Structures are given as structure tokens and as C-alpha cells.
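We keep the chain:
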Amino acid sequence: MHHIQTGFKILELGASYSNLCASYSNVLHQTRTGSTILELNASNSNRVNHTRTLCIILELNTSYSNWAHNTRTGFIILELGTSSSNWMHHTRTTGIIPGLGASYSNWVHHTRTGLLLLELGSSYANWVHHT
């Protein structure tokens, strides 16, 4: 847990290796300003990186790597059952993004300005790009 600042809650459950809920490495990096992060059953590496400004990130059962990266400004990201890699990258400005059952790679990239994205059961690559 690195550079945690300013009034938020982190719940870490089910750590098998490093007491940080991840069996290999779990990095909660530079979270700031009133956020809630729930990390459960991350098996290899689960990063919540540079989250800022009143966000809620739920990470459940990520099997390899699940990044919620550079998320900003009051939104909710739900990540459930991603098997290889699921990126939620540079989301901004009041969006809700549920990502469920992406089997290889599911990208929601550069989403901005009050949106709702539902990602369910994409088998290889499902891009929602520059919405």
C-alpha cells in the first residue's frame, strides 16, 4: 500500500501470501481524496493505480491482471470475473463501468463525460474506444 492519503477506506480480504489480499502482489498506489477500494481474491497482480477524487472500485476474482488506471472524478468501476486482462483506462467524469466475464481482453479506453458502459461476455477483444 503506497502513498495512501486523505480519508478513504480500503478493505483487504483473503490474503494468501503478503497480507494484502493478493496471493502474489497487490498494489494500491497513490489513492487519494475520499475513495473506497475493495480488493478480494486477486490471484496474481491487481493494480488500482492513481485513483483520485471520490471513486469506488470493486475488484473481485481477477485471475491474472486487472488494471483500473488513472480513474478520476466521481465514478464507480466494477470488475468481476476477468480471466486474462481487463483494462479500464483513463475513465473520467461520472461514469459507471461494469466489466463482467471478459475472457481475453476487454478495453474501455478514454471514456469521458457521464457515461454508462456494460461489458458482458466478450470472448476475444471488445473495444469501446474514445466514447
Observations:
- Residues 1-29 form one domain.
- The longest strand covers residues 9-13.
- The mean pLDDT is 48.
- DSSP finds no helices and twelve strands in the chain.
